[in-house]
Amino acid sequence: MPHIHELYDFTVSAFIMHPTEPKICLHFHRKLNFWNQLGGHIELDEDPLETLARELKEEAGLSENDYEIIEVSSQPKITDAVKQLPMPFAFPIYKYGKLAHWHIDLPYLVKAKTVRLNPQDGESQKIRWFNKDEISQLQRDGELGDTVHQICEWIFAHHM
Q: Is the CATH code 3.90.79.10 the one for domain 13-158?
């Protein structure tokens, strides 16, 4: 979705864990020119889970059967008449690149059921699994932002 204003946009992102090894999937973001988690803007006709499914299909070739969302906190059960979304593990608001533009992100922890990554045409083809040391090296080399690095460190420490 293109930016329709210079204010706040809601986004969804996924920190994808490898199915069997302590690794996290990142892709090289062409506009920002560094490695990043997968995700994108919530379209006006989508809820966050629909956006997550669309982005994971486009950016990694993962269908909804190829991953599961890992909830890191519990929430109350609400009537079945209400669609209840899984809780994101954080709720960050950050400036997008050098633009006067902000993202309110809903980041999800996702466990892949396959190691196969197959981005669609038009998406970044630089996508791979990184271990903890490789992610730290990306950050030291200036190829990974501090926030993504800190989240990856938290995942390695508490969820692998």
A: yes
For 46, other C-beta atoms within 10 Å of its C-beta total: 15
Residue (of 38, 16, 19, 18) closest to 27 by Cα position: 38
The C-alpha atoms of residue 67 and residue 17 are separated, in whole angstroms, by 9
What are 69-113's pLDDT values in tens digits? 999 887 787 888 888 888 899 988 888 777 678 889 999 999 999
Give CA angle at 4 (151, 61), nearest 5°.
Answer: 50
Cα of 53 vs its chain's centroid, Å:
11
| Whole-number Cα distances in Å, 6 to 37, 39, 63, 140 | 23, 19, 32, 31
Provide the residue ranges of all domains of the chain, joining segments of one domain with +: 13-158
